[in-house]
Amino acid sequence: MITYIIACFWWFLVRYINTQEDIDNENTFITANLLDEVFQGDVPDTCYREFCNVETVGEDHECFDTTWKEENCPSDVLTLVIIVCYFALTTLSTVGYGDYFPISINEILIGIAYMLIGIVCFSQIMGSFIEIIQNYDQRMGNESNGSDLNNWTLLLTRFATKPLPPTLINQIDSHFSFFWDQNRLNSMEIDDEYLSQCPK
After folding, report:
1. CB of 51 closer than 8 Å to CB of 57
2. Under 8 Å between Cβ of 92 and 6
3. Tell me: the pLDDT tens digits for 65-75?
4. C-alpha–C-alpha distance, residues 38 and 154, integer Å
């Protein structure tokens, strides 16, 4: 939903922020990516800029009339929505595949703002997601202690004259994994209300 809103906002901006010179030179996001030529169904050849130019059809041809274009060259709105949402998502996530990108200076400035907003939003989302997973692990008692165990076995090998046998390391790992999985107190916090009511 957020991507769709951002995409609609981007489409609105690129239609109205560009200078007439950029539009005439086809130096905009819409014209450079031929998004103004994404039509629904079969349309006359003169709907395309390649055929609708003064050299080919003359100055008085109906293809230069906006009303005629609206009636005879319907845009494929669904395809445009998908393309613009795709662009908004790749820009916000700072992936930027490069197949669609801002063209004019005004579009580039707005694209920079989009990327900065994207960095903030995705950092917030990822931080919340990681916090949810950590809270879930702590409540379910699945909080991994494996890194501490690995550090301990590594410390043992440093002080031993020869390395620990792999079978011993596997047995230690299996023992503690079983212990942590079966330890029901592992999911309780020190200030847990039920734990605090137990006799001391």
Report:
1. yes
2. yes
3. 778 777 788 88
4. 62
Between CA 46 and CA 68 the distance in angstroms is: 11
Q: What angle separates helix 77-92 from helix 2-16, to the nearest 10 degrees?
A: 100
What pLDDT, in 10s, does the model give residues 94-130?
787 888 888 888 888 988 888 888 888 888 888 888 8
Neighbours of 142 (CB within 10 A): 12
Integer Cα distance of 13 and 115 in angstroms: 16
Which domains does the chain possess?
A: 2-38+75-128 (1.10.287), 142-197 (no CATH)
| CA 135/CA 124 separation, integer angstroms | 16
C-alpha–C-alpha distance, residues 159 and 156, integer Å: 5
SS3 for 39? strand
Give the CA dihedral 93, 95, 98, 102, nearest 10 degrees.
Answer: 30
- CB-count exposure of residue 178 (10 Å: 0-12, 13-18, 19+): exposed
- Bridge partners of 187, per DSSP, are none
